[in-house]
Design goal:
The chain is an alpha+beta fold. It has a domain of 205 residues. The strands form 4 sheets. Strands 1, 2, 3, 4, 5, 6, 7 and 8 form an 8-stranded antiparallel sheet that branches. Strands 9-14 form a two-stranded antiparallel sheet. The longest helix has 25 residues.
Length: 614
Amino acid sequence: MEQGTPTSKESYYQQAFDGEADLLGKIRAALISEQYVLIPPNLSFEFKPKISQVYITLFQAGIKKIRWGSRRKDLESSINRVVKKLKNNQRFESFNIADPKQCRILFEIVVEQSDCNIRNLTTAKFNQNRFEPGVTGLKYTYQNTLRYFMPTDAITHSIMSINQLLNFLSKQTGIAKQTNSIKERAHLMRREPIDYQLIKSAAFITYNDQTIPLYRGYPTRIKFNKNSLFEAMMASIDWLSANMYPDGRFLYYYDPYKDTVVDDMHPNMVDPLYNNILRHCGGTITLLRAYELTQEEKYLGPAKKSLDFLISTFREHEYQGQYACFPFFNKKSKLGGAGVGLVALMQHYRLSGDESYRNQIDGLVRHLLSRVDEEGEMIGYYLHPKYNNGNPLVNLSIEMKKALFSFYYPGEALLGLALYYRFMKDIEPELKQDVYNKSLKALDFLVDIRPERYQELFLSLPADAWLMQAIEEWVKVDGFKQQRYIDFVFNDAKQMIEHMYTEENSPSFDYVGGFYYEYGDHVYHDASRCEGLIAAFYLARYLGEVQVAEYLLENMLKSAKGLMLTRHTEESTYAHKYPEKSINSFRFKLTRQWVRVDSVQHLACFYARLYPVM
C-alpha cells in the first residue's frame, strides 16, 4: 500500500466534479424529454470498452428503485441505451424525474477489473483476492448469464461479510433455492462453475441541484469540527427520543432499506420487536448526557419514561435479609442489565435530584453485591433458562462461571456501584461499607486474577470500555487510587490505539480512526470502545498526566471523525425507502444500513464527553 494514499484520496473526493454534474444533468434531461445524451469532455474517469459497464439507478422515497445497465462501444452509446431502457420500464412514470429533490439519480461505471479466485475471497487480508465492501464488486457469469454486483450494492443491501455477499448472489442466480442455510449457500457459490472477476467503479449521486461523488457508496464530504460534532450528536439524540414507543421503550432496530423494525439478528423471536435491556438503559443514559450538556428539560421526560419501563421489568429477592431487585428480560437476569440499569438510575438521580427511584436503586445495589463471590468474581447471570432449570445461579463451579463469562458485565456493574458510592446521599453505613469492600475485591479479581484464569478469552483488541469508565470513577475514592487499576486503563487504551487504523497504515481514508483485531480486518468504527478511551483521557487529566491525555485526545479525534462517516444524512440516504425515518441516526457499520439503539447511543455518549475538550 502506498504511504499517504488515504489522505490524497480523501482530497480527491472533496474536489468539484463539474463534468459529472453536467453529465447527470444531461441524463435527467434525456429522461424527461427525447434528448440524446452527449458526453461532456471533462470527466474524471475513463471509459474502457472491454470492462466499463454503466448503470443508472433512479431512487425516490416510497418507490422501489429501477435500474438498468449496459456496455456498448463507447460511453455515449452505453448511457443512451440505459436511458431508453429506463424509460421503457413500466414503473418509470411513478418517478418525478423533473424534481431533483424527489428523484435522485445514481450513475456508476466500472473502471477496473481483475481476476478473482472466489475460494480465496477475503475481507481479512490485503491481497489480490480482497473483497472491500462498497469499494469492490463482482462481475460473474453463471449458466451463460452475465451479472454484476456493483460496489454500491454493498451499501444499498447492507452487505459487509463474504457470506452475506455470496448469500445475496445465490438469490440472484437462483442457487439459494437449494438450501435455507446462508453458510451452505456461500459454499455452493464457491463450488458452482461460476467465472468471477473483481471490479471497481466510479459513482456519483444527485442531491437537489448538486452532484456528489461517492466513495464506498456514500458521500464523504463531511464537516468535522466542534460545532458539527455537537450538531450531529444532538440530532442523533433527538432521533432516539423521537423514536420511543409510548411505553418508554426505544426503537431497538431499524433497517431503512427494507423499512422494517424486525431485527435481522433475531428473526425467529416470538416477539419480532426484539429488545435488550442493557441497550435500553444505554438509550436512557444518552438522553441524560444531552440534558447534562444542554440543561434542556425536554430530555428528562423521555429519560424518566424509559426508566419507568426499566422498573417494570424488575423482580425481587433478598440480600442479607433486605430488599434486592434486578431486571428480568428475555427470560434472563444479566449482571450487565442490573449494572447499566443502576448507571442509568444514578445518572438520572445525579443530574435531576429526583429521589423517586431510591428504593429500586438501593435494591439494585444489593443485588449486584450478591453477585460478587468470595474471590471477587462477579457472576455474569443470576437467572438463565439454559442453566439450573432457570433457578438462581449460586455456588457455581469454575467451569460454570466460565460459561457465564462476560467482559462487559462486571465493568457495567462496577460503574453503577461507583456512581452510587460517590453521589448517593444518606447511604446506610453498613451498605456503603459493603459496596466499598466488594467493589475493591471485584476490581482486584478483574485486574489480577481474571487475565490468568480466562487468558484464552482475551483478544488482541480490548473490549473492556465499561471497566475503564468504572475505574475512572473509583480512582476518586480513597483507597482505590491504586497504580494497578490506573495501569489497566492506560494499557487497554494503548492497546486499542495500537490496533487502530491510521493515516500511515490504512487502505483507504475512511478506515482512519477505526479498529482491527488483526491488521487487514475490515475496519471496526466502534464508539463503545471510544467511550473507554475518553474515560482514559479524563483519568489522565485528573491525575495530571498531560502527555498521556494529549496522546489519547489526538487519537480519539481520528476515531470521532471516522465515526462521522456512519451518519445518515440527507445526502447519504438515497437508497432508503423513507429517508426521513433514518436521517440523523448512525448506521451499524460502514456498509450496513441498519440502525440499532446502541449504534446511536454509544456514539452520542462518546461525542458528549469529547465535545467539551475539543
